[in-house]
Design a protein that fits this description.
About 35% of the residues lie in helices and about 20% in strands. The protein is α/β, with parallel strands linked by helices and about 240 residues long. The strands form 2 sheets. Strands 3, 4, 5, 6, 7, 8 and 9 form a 7-stranded mixed sheet that branches. The protein has a 5-stranded parallel sheet with strand order 2-1-10-11-12, sandwiched between helices. α8 packs parallel to α9.
């Protein structure tokens, strides 16, 4: 039986995720809760860098539009997970190390493969990061740079049709893939006063950190076995009622 599922991630990924949900027989409704603003004029200091770190595909989109991309492509890149690694290869990176899906999970790989004396690490990121790599790596002697190449702006309201769908129980699931998106959803659900009426809603979360942002709402929360989008989708499939 079809589940009506709220897609909250920013474009361009919202449309792609909706297509994946539809292919699995679900009915996606889109309400991106973060708007991405790229900052192409921010300098990207790669002098003396030994590697790049990327923990989101939006960082790669920002990098792809940056004048320093040709220089960046000559560096090894540490990608947070498989999907980000695929995007990195698509824009021309050839030496890509794939993490397990979280920024924290990149730390052991960086420690294993890189050395402080060989140059700086450059983490291409937004203003707010879900996990800050800087303290741990600087403590180990690495020079760490984090140029801000994009910003994310949280939505100020949910669309009326989404509020109606949550209140009526027509929307039965919401996919949350980042702590900031989850915090935004929690704040807006409370602001619109839909938490009590939406008691049947299930929050499908990428990780425990994401789940913690919506746990105070008192809604059902499900966490993927691994921090990958495909595992979130598998979790949702397993909960879909039989026709």
């Amino acid at each position: 039986m079809t589940m009506r599922v709220l897609v909250t991630r920013p474009e361009f990924d919202a449309t792609r995720e909706a297509e994946a949900l539809a292919a699995h027989g679900h009915d996606p409704v889109l309400a991106p809760l973060l708007a991405i603003e790229f900052l192409p004029d921010v300098p990207l200091d790669l002098d003396g860098a030994q590697a790049l770190i990327v923990t989101s595909r939006n960082a790669l989109r920002a990098l792809e539009a940056h004048e320093a991309l040709p220089q960046a492509l000559g560096l090894p890149l540490f990608a947070v997970g498989e999907a980000t690694a695929r995007s990195a290869r698509r824009i021309g990176f050839t030496e890509v190390t794939i993490g397990p899906g979280t920024a924290a999970g990149l730390l052991p790989l960086i420690r294993q493969e890189l050395h402080p004396e060989k140059g700086a690490l450059v983490h291409v990121a937004a203003e707010a990061v879900a996990y800050d790599l800087k303290p741990a790596l600087e403590e180990e002697g690495f020079t760490f740079r984090r140029p801000v190449l994009y910003r994310s702006h949280p939505a100020r309201a949910l669309p009326d049709e989404i509020v109606s769908g949550l209140v009526s129980g027509d929307i039965t699931g919401v996919i949350l893939l980042s702590p900031r998106t989850a915090k935004t959803f929690a704040a807006l659900a409370e602001r619109h006063g839909v938490v009590t009426q939406a008691r049947s809603l299930v929050c499908y979360c990428l990780s425990q950190a994401v789940a913690e942002a919506v746990t105070p709402l008192g809604l059902a929360v499900r966490v993927a076995a691994h921090p990958r989008e495909e595992d979130v989708l598998a979790l949702l499939d397993s909960d879909a009622p039989s026709s």
